[in-house]
Structure formats: C-alpha cells, structure tokens
Amino acid sequence: MNPSRILFPLLSLLLGACAVGPDYRRPELATPTQWQAPLPHAGKLDALSDWWAQFNDPALDALLRAAQADSPTLDKASAAIRSARANLRSAGASLQPSLSAAITQTQAGSKQGNGAMPVNTTASALDASWEIDLFGGTRRGIESARALNDAREADWHDARISLAAEVATNYVDYRACQLQLAAYQDALRSQRATAELTALAVKAGFSAAADGALAEASLASASASATAQAASCDVTRKALVALSGLDETRVGALLDSQPVRIPQPAARQIDSVPAQLLTQRPDLVSAERSLASASAQIGVADAARYPSLTLNGSISLSASNAASSVPWSFGPTLAIPLLNGGALSAKLESARAAYDSALASYKSAVRTAVKEVEQALVRLDGARRREDDARTSAAGYRAYFIASEANWRAGGTSLLNLETARRNAITAELNLISLEQTRVENWIALYKALGGGWNAEASSAASSTVSTPRN
C-alpha cells in the first residue's frame, strides 16, 4: 500500500481541524471611572518609574540594590519562571514527530557435539510516531503553558515590587525609630537634671520627699522608654540585614553614612483611572494569565474525550553471519475512548470548575487592587492634613514645657505640673514623628498598590531577551 494514500488525507483533516474548548477572552470587569478618595497633586497622569530616586537617599538606594541582587524570594520566583518555560517547550514538542533509534547485537547458538559456530546478529531500528492534534488538545495545552509562563513572569515582577516596598518601609521605620530614640534620650537628659535638682532640694529641706520619689520614678520611666526604643531600632536594623543580604557591619555603615531623617518623597503625580491597574499591577496580570491557562485546560480536557490518531512507522536493518533483512512498517493508529466510567467527563467538569475558581480569584484581585489604592489615598491625605496640626501641637507643648521648667526652677510651679508638661511635650513630638513616618509609608503603599510603575508590555519584551529574570 502506498503510504501517501493514507498520509495526505490525514494531513488535510489535520489542517481543517478546530481546537475544541472555549476561545479565551479577557473578561471585562466593571471598575470605577475615577478615584473616590482625594488625589494628591491633582492626580495627573505620570509614570511611577524611578520612584525611589525621588527620595534622594543613597543609603536607601544601596539597600534596595542589594536586596534585588540577592533575595531568596526572587530566586524562588526566578526558578518558577524557568520551570514554566521548560513546561512550555515540552508542550510545544508534543506537536512534533518523535523519532527514536536502537541498536542491538546478539550472539546465539547451541551446545552440540559437532561444534556448530554461534550466530552473531546486529540489528538497528528507527521508530517514528506523530500524534495528529485532531481536536486541538495539544494546542490548548501549549496555550495553557504559555499563559502560565506569562503568569510566572508577572509573579517575579510582583515579588520585586513587594521586596522593594518592604525594604523601603523598614528603612523608614528605622529612621523614625532613630528620631524617636533621640527624643527619648533628650527627655532622659532633661529628666536626669530635674531629678538631680530635686534630690538637692529634698536634701536641703526645700522640697518634700514625695517630690524626690516622683522625680526618681519619672527618671526610671524615661530610662526604660529609651532602652526599649533602642532595642526596637536594633530589631529593625536586623530586618534590613536580612532583606538586603549584606552583613550587619555593611548595613550599619550605610545607615550611618546619611543623616538621621525620614526620607521625604518629592511631589509625585498619579494616574486617576483605576482601569490602568489592569496593565500596571503584575499581580493582576498574573491572575488574568492564570485565568487564561484555566480556560485552555478546558479544551485539553474536552479533546481527551474524542478519538486520537497517531501515525507510526519503523524501519530496521538486521544482519547476521547467516542472513540479512530490512523490514519496515507504516500505518495509522486510531484510539477511541469507549468506556471509562465517566472519568473523562469528570475531568472536563473539573477543568470548568477550575476556570470558575480562577475567574473568581481574578475578580477578587481587581477589587482588592482598587480598594488598596483607595485606602492608600485616604490614608495619605489624612496623614498629610494631620501633620500640620501635629507640628503645631508639638511646637506648642515644647514651648509650654520650656516655660514650665523655667517656672519650676524659680519655684513658681510644682514638680507634678512640670512632669505633666514634659510628658505632653514628648508625646506630641513622638506623635509628629509617627505621622511623618506614616505619611511616607503611605506613599510607599501607594507605589505598591499602583504596581510600582511596572509595564506589562515592556517587561514581557525584556524578559524574552534574558535568561535570568534578575537582570
């Protein structure tokens, strides 16, 4: 039989075949047309790239670079990308014919009295097979693998953004902690001077013993607060060591190289259209690509319920010291699933359920993204408006304490009034530092909520040209 009589009709059937299962379309989700929270700086469209450069803090920049260069989290995400790419190549190989070769050599004979020579046989064979993708199951598998590859690349970018935000937040925490420690230490020095003067007054009989006890108690309380704050700063420093991968000496040198201040971002403008999140946040891209993969898996499961056709062929050469032959074979194999106890239908239903679950996750991710931006804007606006009042309050309480201390030294007010004024002053100063810290961290939260300026198209093009996603 002429093999072309079988091959050509089958190829025609292949070219005309359609892939079963749904053709994926990204769902259109309802999003608000504008932010409902107050927008800083009029909310004009502006890129969020080079976000960290606006802080103009070399120590922060160095810590961010170190964290991005050596992070177990990014290494894990990078490994997931390599695995997804390998799966994609494996899926693509399923469309190609497979060819295998084998060589065998045997020696056979029998033990007889006449001393017959053994027969030496050498055989080589080529076996080929090609499964025709009649109903598109393999193509849907490739579609699914490609979407998952895109999702893993987006996950890596999301990990980078989260890592940068975590490093920056810890850095801001550390600087705020240092400022609060300085405030506690300043209060401690003032408290120590007060306690010394009170002790002299009690010894001279000018003050009651209760005043001495109050002064010593206030001094001990201030010392305990300063010690606790110092420990808190040390804990945050060690967090920066873990995140950056640098040794503690190097991290300490970086931190000490810059003045103790909370880094202040320059005025930034943001996009006021929530729909932009769909292309700007890598976690949403990952969720949408996972949804596309789940859709393609429906086609894979559906195609498994239909017949499969495989072209098989082989040719072999067998030679011995007795004879030689060249057998060959070619022909199709049609496999038809008949009875499987409903297993294939159950797999199809499972694939559809997995798609519904992925769709729900995608919808939830979009809603969460809009919520996070709205909340970041509200918190940022609230911190900004409260900060002016907090600064006025801190200045007023500080002035009142200075006046109260002068009055106490002159004998015009009690030690209890002085301690009350001191406590109000330190509380107001700590509150101001905390608000400055909160405002900057809300900027960082907004950066993360808006996807850090990540661009899906640019990142996709870049990732296709590098072998290691860290580059």
Automatic annotation (TrEMBL):
Pfam families: OEP (PF02321)
SUPFAM superfamilies tied to this protein: Outer membrane efflux proteins (OEP) (SSF56954)
Protein's membrane topology: Lipid-anchor
Keyword Lipoprotein: yes
Record keywords: Lipoprotein, Membrane, Palmitate, Transmembrane, Transmembrane beta strand
Gene3D superfamilies: Outer membrane efflux proteins (OEP)
Protein's cellular compartments: Cell membrane
Similarity field: Belongs to the outer membrane factor (OMF) (TC 1.B.17) family.
Annotated protein name in UniProt: Efflux transporter outer membrane subunit
Record lineage: Bacteria, Pseudomonadati, Pseudomonadota, Betaproteobacteria, Rhodocyclales
